[in-house]
Amino acid sequence: MNHSAGSGVSVNVANTLHRIAPGTIRSDLISAGFEFVAESDFLRNQGDDRNTPMSDPSVRGETDTVAMKFRKPAS
Predict the structure, then answer these.
(1) Is 71 helix (H, G, I), strand (E, B) or coil?
(2) 36, 42, 52, 66: least surrounded by Cβ within 10 Å?
(3) How many CA atoms lie within 13 A of 32 on its CB side?
(4) What stretches of the chain show up as alpha helix (H) in DSSP?
(5) Which among 20, 24, 26 has a CA at the least distance from the CA of 2?
(6) What is the pLDDT of residue 28?
(7) What's the pTM value of the predicted model, to 2 decimals?
(8) pLDDT tens, 32-64?
(9) Are 48 and 62 contacting, i.e. CB atoms less than 8 angstroms apart?
């Protein structure tokens, strides 16, 4: 699970907003050899602007959060 940044946002925002774009998570883990299994929207919040640091009290507990499942392939 990670707090979502907007699509296509540079990974550099992870250092300031403590968020990451879901596409970056997926592509990085697939590039590292993991297999994507599933994604769930149970923690998604479309009302989150994704530009506020996740630690900001105004969004605490209300951020758009992505949950993905990956597995390491059998060798």
Answers:
(1) strand
(2) 42
(3) 11
(4) 22-31
(5) 20
(6) 95
(7) 0.84
(8) 999 999 999 999 999 999 999 988 999 989 999
(9) yes
Question: How far, rounded to the nearest angstrom, does the alpha carbon of residue 72 sit from its chain's CA centroid?
Answer: 19
Look-up of token digits 């507990």: 61
Q: In the sheet where 2-3 sits, what is the strand order?
A: 2-3, 65-71, 35-40
Q: Which residue has the tokens 């990974």?
A: 11
Give Cβ neighbours of residue 27 (< 8 Å, ≥ 6 apart): none
In the block, tokens 């060798």 appear at 75
Give the integer Cα–Cα distance in Å for 5 and 63. 10
Q: To which residue do tokens 């970056």 refer?
A: 24
Q: 18 and 3 in contact (C-beta within 8 Å)?
A: yes
